[in-house]
Design goal:
The complex is a heterodimer of chains A (about 525) and B (about 400). Chain A folds into two domains: about 1-120, no CATH class; about 240-520, ABC transporter involved in vitamin B12 uptake, BtuC, CATH 1.10.3470. Chain A is built from 21 helices and nine strands. Chain A has helices spanning about 1-20, 30-35, 40-50, 55-65, 105-120, 125-140, 145-155, 160-175, 180-190, 195-205, 215-265, 275-295, 305-325, 335-355, 385-405, 405-415, 420-425, 430-450, 465-475, 480-500, 505-520; strands spanning about 70, 75-80, 85, 90-95, 100, 205-210, 210, 370-375, 380. Chain B is an all-alpha fold. Chain B has helices at about 5-10, 15-40, 50-70, 80-100, 115, 135-155, 160-180, 205-235, 235-245, 245-255, 255-285, 295-305, 310-330, 335-350, 355-365, 380-390, 395-400, 400-409; strands at about 195, 200, 200-205, 285. The model of chain B is unreliable at about 370-409 (pLDDT under 50). The chains are: A mainly alpha (about 525), B mainly alpha (about 400). Chains A and B meet through helix 14, helix 19 and helix 21 of A and helix 6, helix 7, helix 10, helix 12 and helix 14 of B.
């Protein structure tokens, strides 16, 4: 740590020095002289310039590629319009452009130029440029590029680029004639978690015409070790990745199920239009994005934050309208309520189709939510999913506070446990129903907001979630927040692991079968309210 | 000594009902087949192939509605998965139809086209027996029956009911739909079965075959109505209605609701399977979208529109909604979901006993002197009679709310 910090400091100082020195005198005459020599020396010089780096090297290479580099009076010059400048120093020379004999660029030169440019790009400030440069170089490496890799490695702070560079360097070393170098490279590669590196090492352990590709048994043993380490690391990273996607699926399920748990707990009514409340929340997010794009383009990245109240309110309003206009009149008839809310869901879907069109609408992830944390090659934890997990925790906390710490929450719990008794002791059950429905619907709207960041937003986006959300409620136990949390996470994670093992459809079916079997054993869910009831 | 079965069946339906059935039989067994297959096309009374298969399709839906009504209206179990049993019956018969294509498919192979397309070399084991007509009839009954029996046994044994049961049946049909959408499942994936050629060697598109299938559907519907009527007026039906209205009380008296519910549930599924088997050759296609939850829940709305707890209501409801659907999807396709959605809401809010309940209310208003419940219907269970007298509120069920919720919670 200390050493690398020190190296970085040194590099920084060197850079400062480079900047401070007058750019003109940066290139040694001897360095560019090779360009005037025979074909091979020209190729070597191009590579050396790429390795050396710097603005002047870039200038010379640009000129060569553009066919503006040439010889005039024995001096390497660059023709720039009407004037001629020295290639090495950039000083203006007193020569006519016509006097310069420019070099032709053939394919091999062009290829060498490509490599050199990539080498130059390794010092770029833009991460993506560096990454693509490192990838280009890693694919066709030669021993002469090695010092440049090592230098770039010392400077590089981005993990993904570092791994590409390290792999490239190790590949060069593995091809080295020196067995000690190969051994070191094989050992160093064990640090990687890249399947491509594994293939590289596995190639050493093959036999060609009865001979080992790698003659030294020591190196082979080291390679074998490294492969095992890499395998283990990849497996761990993949397990963590699956766990995480299960977690993120679980938090979506939780957001969808929390609202349902409240409304079902309070009223004993399955709101089949609950999925459509997700859709309402997602479309509200879409509208907020549109408003930001038109009126506040500078803050467009923060439309998601502004959409939180909008999505909640939109879904809550639709929910209240549903409760007041329809469900209120169906109390005590849960099966009819089921059908009526299904009708509501059909109407809402078709309304969305008419208003917003049947196609999915386009919602952009804010910049701060794109990208992700790379665990290993191919296993990335995307930021948007991480944010959603955090958001679910946040919503859960709010709901928990509401349920446990407020008067309304107490009423909601009372009505959930025993409506008649709650009414007898003065709880305004009708008002509690409306408010609980509003909150439950609002939470569904928040679920829609979260969903809009990772899935398509279209009129029918909610239909798939009602069954899953209900499974969570059933599994967790009615009216139990803790139950809903465990059930959502459990179903999400188990579902994702099964998916990796048996495919998405079979996983879905297995989860359904599991829930049905589970209800055999515990008809009231993981967490049941205690009490003595009989339905007479 | 007990009355012989035939007499009991005869008595279960009032005379007006038998007359209505006879008229219906005359229409569907004689009038429609003659109008379609015998009259020349130019004749004003000729029925086109489109009309006959549309009517045949609706007859099959009516059978499904009756099956749904038997389990929902009379046993209080709302299934949102009846589309699955319908589709299973359809698939079972579809397998036979696929085998009857023989070498006339696009690939001229013994295997159905989709298997050739998937590069399969032989039929999967579960296609065994699909080339025999009798074996297929057995499958049509056995597959939905068995699935319903196993599922129902597990569900009713642990006393899953109410919305729990409804949602789990929905999950069941959803899972089955996903399964059938897969190509590897061996039922044609997305496209399902289509391009049928013949049944028992006769062309499936000939007017005679169409008329026969239509008459068979009508026969099945009538059989369902007579059987259903007999069941719901029997002692069995009364116990079932009692379970519907107060399950715990029935248990305390000493009945085991499991057997009653399971029998009705399985019977209902088998009826759906038979309807599906007759539906597929008339419509010419079966695919997994028949199992979509939306289809199953639509069945419930047919029954609700007609009036649950009355067999005639189920038939009427299926007819009304499906005719409306055909008309809407032809004239204003984009408004059909609105209409259907509002129908769901309006029927549950304003017509809890459906069209039949409305008719009874109107009759009670115009002729207040006549008793609400007509004489032949007095043999109905008491609970149901009470329901009919007070169509707007269901007394026992609304009393149940606090207690039932407690038990669920």
């Amino acid at each position: 740590m200390l050493r690398s910090g020190f190296t970085r400091l040194l590099c920084g100082l060197a850079l400062l020095g480079m900047l401070a020195a007058p750019a003109r005198a940066a290139l040694d005459e001897a360095k560019v002289a090779g360009l005037a020599g025979d074909f091979q020396s020209r190729l070597d010089t191009i590579e050396a310039l790429g390795v050396a780096g710097g603005d002047d090297a870039r200038r010379v290479l640009d000129a060569l590629e553009g066919g503006r580099l040439g010889l005039a009076a024995g001096v390497l010059v660059i023709v720039a319009g009407d004037s001629v400048v020295s290639a090495a120093t950039g000083e203006k020379l007193d020569l006519a452009p016509a006097a310069a004999e420019t070099f032709t660029v053939n394919n091999r030169v062009r290829r060498a130029l490509g490599t050199a440019r990539a080498a130059l790009a390794l010092a770029a400030s833009d991460r993506d440029v560096r990454l693509s440069a490192a990838r280009t170089l890693a694919d066709n490496t030669t021993e002469s590029l090695l010092p440049m890799f090592e230098r770039a490695l010392a400077k590089e702070s981005d993990d993904e680029i570092r791994s590409v560079l390290a792999r490239a360097a190790a590949r060069v070393n593995l091809a080295s004639a020196d067995a000690a170098k190969r051994l070191k490279a094989a050992e160093a590669l064990g640090e990687s978690s890249d399947p491509a590196v594994k293939n590289l090492l596995a190639a050493l352990l093959e036999k060609k015409d009865g001979e080992w590709v790698e003659p030294s048994s020591e190196v082979r043993a080291a390679a074998d070790m490294a492969i095992h380490t890499i395998d283990r690391r990849i497996a761990t990273a993949e397990a963590v990745g699956t766990l995480f996607s299960g977690l993120s699926l679980g938090s979506i399920l939780l957001l969808a199920a929390l609202g349902l748990a409240i409304t079902y707990g309070v009223m004993g009514v399955i709101n089949m239009a609950h999925g459509e409340l997700l859709m309402v929340g997602a479309y509200a997010t879409f509208l907020v994005q549109g408003l930001f794009r038109s009126y506040l383009p500078a803050y467009v990245d923060w439309y998601v934050a502004a959409a939180i109240p909008a999505a909640f309110l939109a879904a809550a309003l639709v929910g209240v309208a549903m409760e007041r206009l329809v469900l209120r009149h169906l109390y005590g008839r849960p099966l009819e309520s089921l059908l009526a809310t299904w009708g509501l869901s059909l109407v809402l879907i078709q309304a969305a189709r008419v208003v917003f069109g049947p196609q999915n609408v386009e919602l952009a992830n804010p910049v701060w939510m794109s990208g992700g944390i790379a665990l290993a090659a191919g296993v990335v934890l995307p930021w948007n999913r991480i944010v959603i997990v955090g958001f679910a925790v946040f919503v859960l906390l709010l709901i928990w506070l509401m349920m446990q710490r407020t008067r309304l929450g107490m009423f909601v719990r009372a009505v959930t446990q025993n409506r008649a008794m709650a009414g007898c002791v003065g709880v305004p059950t009708a008002r509690v129903d409306t408010l609980a429905f509003a909150i439950g619907s609002g939470v569904a709207g928040l679920g829609g907001l979260a969903l809009s960041q990772i899935a398509n937003v279209g009129p029918a986006m909610g239909t798939g979630y009602i069954v899953d959300a209900f499974m969570v409620v059933v599994l967790g136990g009615v009216g139990q927040l803790a139950g809903a949390v465990w059930a959502a996470l459990g179903l999400g994670i188990v579902g994702k692991f099964l998916e990796g093992w048996a495919g998405a459809v079979i996983a879905k079916i297995l989860v359904l079968v599991f829930v049905i079997v589970f209800i055999q054993k515990r008809p009231q869910g993981i967490f049941a309210l205690k009490g003595r009831f009989a339905d007479m | 000594m007990r009355t012989p079965l035939t007499l009991r069946i005869l008595h279960s339906t009032p005379r007006a009902g038998w007359i209505a059935l006879a008229v219906f039989a005359a229409l569907t067994w004689i009038a429609v087949p003659v109008a379609h297959a015998v009259l020349p096309e130019a004749h004003p009374l000729h029925l086109s192939a489109y009309t006959v298969s549309l009517l045949g399709k609706i007859l099959c839906y009516m059978v499904v509605a009756v099956a749904m009504d038997l389990i929902w209206g009379y046993a209080g179990i709302l299934s949102l998965g009846h589309g699955l049993f319908f589709a299973l019956g359809g698939y079972a018969f579809g397998m036979y139809l696929m085998r009857q294509i023989g070498r006339d498919g696009s690939y001229q192979s013994d295997l159905p086209d989709f298997m050739v397309f998937l590069d399969w070399k032989e039929l999967p084991w579960y296609w065994a027996g699909s080339d025999s007509f009798l074996g297929t009839l057995l499958l049509v009954v056995a597959v939905p029956g068995l699935v319903a029996f196993v599922f129902g046994w597990f569900a009713f044994r642990s006393r899953i009911k109410g919305v729990y049961f409804s949602i789990i049946t929905q999950a069941l049909t959803y899972a089955a739909m996903l399964l059938f959408f897969r190509n590897e499942t061996g039922f044609g994936g997305n496209n399902g079965f289509t391009d049928f050629k013949r049944i028992l060697g006769y062309s499936i598109t000939s007017p005679e075959m169409r008329a026969t299938l239509f008459a068979l559907s009508a026969a099945l519907l009538m059989a369902c109505l007579v059987l259903g009527r007999y069941l719901v007026t029997s002692r069995f039906g009364r116990v079932l209605a009692a379970i519907r209205d107060a399950e715990s009380r029935v248990m305390f008296i000493g009945y085991n609701p499991l057997h009653y519910k399971l029998f009705m549930w399985t019977l209902s599924a088998v009826l759906c399977g038979l309807a599906g088997a007759l539906y597929v050759p008339q419509v010419g296609i079966i695919n997994p979208s028949e199992m979509s939850p939306a289809n199953s829940i639509e069945i419930a709305v047919w029954v609700a529109v007609g009036g649950r707890g009355t067999l005639v209501g189920a038939v009427l409801g299926a007819g009304i909604v499906n005719l409306a659907k055909s008309w809407f999807t032809m004239s204003f396709p984009e408004y059909w979901p609105f209409f259907l959605g509002f129908l769901f809401i309006a029927v549950t809010l304003y017509l809890p006993d459906g069209v039949v309940g409305l008719w009874r209310r109107l009759r009670a208003r115009t002729a207040p002197a006549t008793p609400t419940v007509p004489a032949p219907q007095q043999s109905k269970p008491q609970a149901e009679a009470r329901r009919e007298m007070q169509p707007a509120a269901v007394p026992i069920e609304s009393n149940r709310l606090p207690a039932a919720k407690g038990a669920e919670a």
